[in-house]
Amino acid sequence: MGIHIVKRDACPLWKKAVLYVAAVLFALVIGGVLLLAMGVNPLAYYGRMFTMGMVGNKIAYKAFENYLKVFVPLALTSVALSLAFKMRFWNIGGEGQFIMGAIASATVALKLGPVLPNAVTLILMCLAAMLAAGLYGVFVAALKVKFGTNETLMTLMLNYVALYVLTFLGDTKADWNFFLQEKSARPVFESFASFAAFPRIMLGKFGLNICVILAFLVGALVFVYLKYTKHGYEISVVGDSAGTAHYAGMKVNTIVLRTVFLSACLIGLAAAFKVGTAGVLSTAITEDVGWTGIIVAWLSHLNTAVIFVVSALISMLHYGSIAAAATFSKVDSSFANMLQGVILFLVLTAEFFIRFRVVRNKKGGKQ
Amino acid sequence: MPEQYAIEMRGITKRFGTKVLANDNINLNLRQGEILSLLGENGSGKTTLMNMLSGIYAPDAGQILVDGKPVSITSPEDAKRLGIGMVHQHFKLVDVFSAADNIWMGREKSGFGLNRRRYDEIEAMAKKFGFDIDPRKKVCNMAVSEKQTLEIIKVLYYGAKIIILDEPTAVLTVQEIEKLFAVLRRMKQEGHSIIIITHKLNEVMDISDRVAILRKGQYITTVNTADTNEQELTEWMVGRKIDLNIARPVVEKTRPLLEIRDLTIKNDEGATAIDKVNFYIRGGEILGVAGIAGCGQKELCEAIAGLRPIQSGLMIHKGDNIVGLPPKAILEKGISMSFIPEDRLGMGLAPSLSITDNMILKNYADAKGLFVDRKTGRADAQRIIEELEVVTPSTETPVRRLSGGNVQKVLLGREIKAGPNVIVTAYPVRGLDINSSYAIYDILNQQKQDGVGILFVGEDLDVMLALCDKIMVLCHGKVMGVVHAHKTTKEELGLMMTGALDLTDKYEDKPAGIARDTNITQEQLKAAQEEGEN
Prior knowledge:
The structure holds two protein chains of two kinds.
Chain A lengths: L2 E5 L5 H25 L4 H9 L9 H27 L7 H19 L5 H30 L3 H21 L28 E4 L2 E4 H19 L1 H11 L1 H6 L4 H27 L10 H11 L4 H24 L7 H21 E5 L7
Antiparallel strand pairs in A: 1-4, 2-3
Helix pairs in contact in A: 1-2, 1-13, 2-12, 3-7, 3-10, 3-11, 3-12, 4-5, 4-6, 4-10, 4-11, 5-6, 5-10, 7-8, 8-10, 11-12, 12-13
Chain B lengths: L6 E10 L3 E11 L4 E5 L6 H8 L7 E6 L2 E3 L4 H6 L2 E4 L11 H6 L13 H11 L15 H14 L4 E5 L7 H16 L3 E5 L3 H7 L2 E6 L2 E7 L5 H9 L17 E11 L5 E11 L3 E5 L6 H8 L7 E6 L2 E2 L5 H6 L2 E5 L15 H5 L14 H14 L16 H14 L4 E5 L7 H16 L3 E5 L3 H7 L2 E6 L2 E7 L5 H8 L24 H12 L1
Parallel strand pairs in B: 3-8, 3-9, 6-7, 7-8, 13-18, 13-19, 16-17, 17-18
Antiparallel strand pairs in B: 1-2, 1-4, 4-5, 9-10, 11-12, 11-14, 14-15, 19-20
Helix pairs in contact in B: 12-13, 13-14
């Protein structure tokens, strides 16, 4: 007597939806138990978290603006990563590429910002960030193409190289280091918010950052690129079977280099959006989007439209936990990371049940 | 008292998902000390049924009796304990281990350390059964037939009394098959009971005492081999009358379309895979390439398609040298190559993509502008589905969801759609059942009648003898001769495949593989010779 697993042919949409919702609810229950153990009322906490502190808040629009600041880099990074993942190129170097993009765009802002008009500075910031991040990413692709190195290890390790370069810039007080404030005795990053910041479209009191619109635009372009263009087709074929791509006369190496460059470029663009909105560098500039983006891309099955929805939800979790931490001082905002992990785990479990059924073995011997 | 069978399966049912009924109420019995053939088309449920005996799947319903006692087999360990051993179609061996270690690692209570006596013990045991094997040899250095021998020794070492072989002859030459059958007959005399799965009817007639037939998951019948014939077996298997003769239409031949001279190619390891090979293909003929698996066929196909650099030699297509051209340019000249590898999906198709997307694989770049033209691709897919009777829910179904025969029809359909003048096709019927195989032969014959030159790399000598006009035999990358299919025999081909017979100089006035009315100019030859000398 026992159980065995049977593959399903198809799972109706409603069942999928029920399973996903159940997974998320179950994750919240687990989180709730932990909150109870800490002596916090889970309902109150979740209420605060999911409204992101906007209910009963006189400056709720401010909270939503800040939420979008979390959402844009995450969504764009996830979209960018999905390009590489579609080709089965395991780019887990989003962090490193983001940091390189951030440093490049901050350089442009600090050096050229004071002399150039804001719009020109912003465009140059974006281009510089895309180029820096793109080169940082394509370097790994070149090694893979040329020497067959493992891109997972290479991109992973280059994340730390980038992070320590940024930390070095942030800690080193020196004449050449224009990233830090000259006047401060302690090492503090110089702000450039006054002369290099993305404009906002004012809708009443609420200012819609132009980056939000741009992010959606890039998302739509990537969607079309992957689904309808020759390049997108090549990416699918190379990802599915490099041997077949080669056989069909595709230049596989060129496609790999091109796609990884594009993927890293878009991560750089996300970094430029982030830097140009924050107006200052920081050693925590990435807010882990390079990591979270991987989760978002896979939770969305690399579907560009779904990536935006999932990014919105995950950002809600992160921003909401920060907002809730203001009321519930016992609960650190890291709670969001924990909850995100549980949700990912349970959604994967739900996917298992979407693909398989568990059946009890029928007793043999009886006819 | 009823006869006591070695194995009795009663009312076995196995479902995959809700739609696929792999085995429906199957009754099968295996007598003590007999060889039973299990016959059926692809997807008729043979392997599924055997996997339930070897503990890989558990039946949804039904009962299994071993030596008259009901048993429950829920894991391979259970099967082993009951004395049931299976030699799978895809060998389950660790490449970097020695023969002895591959056997040793599955032994129960083999202890913590590796016993040095294992080599002697296994050698002695192999001798006892009449096998010749070096226990210290690593699996990765073994030929296919050696690996198979090792698999058989392995199940015997674990004490199996009942041995199941899943398509054991698919990878062997004629001589090796005879050797295997001798081993099986000896095992039978020693009291082992054997089930053998095969598609090849002549082998069924040759080796088995009885034949059990499955069709589409249903049990049809079991008959004594002596009381039946190939025609009758086919009808049971397919469910209707079928003509077993492969047609070989006579077509007016053209001048050589593709000529290969002194071609030398290296394999991935840098060893010579194809060694100074000469041959030519005319329009309206099928040239078969016979040879033991892995003696240069793959490298040859890849070189012609421009996927593999050559060391030296000439490849002349209608008088133009195609050496060094990129794959795309060779495609545009009308040379199509399709290679069905052992996993049947590796080259030529993108398995996760739809039929439509696979249709446009070779010409997607011709569409104007940035976008892919899926509309034409979909129409092509629809036409091929109709013309070649591909069974699929829609044109948007991923290719990997189709069954083997349909996958191969899609691949061949795409190649023909482009209107090639030379078709290089390797193992196009690999693993296909009779029905689908004949559909593929018809497609190739149709192309031949349209004046296309076909290079057919095959496995089954019976098929090649019937289908091809001429057959070239390769042995370790060297040509052993090019013979007329209607003038040669299986035995002769077998001897050439193993290198025992060399017919390259059979006709003194005409070396094998060089056409009298060649398109190759003296300058081209001279240039190639000079290059070869450098």
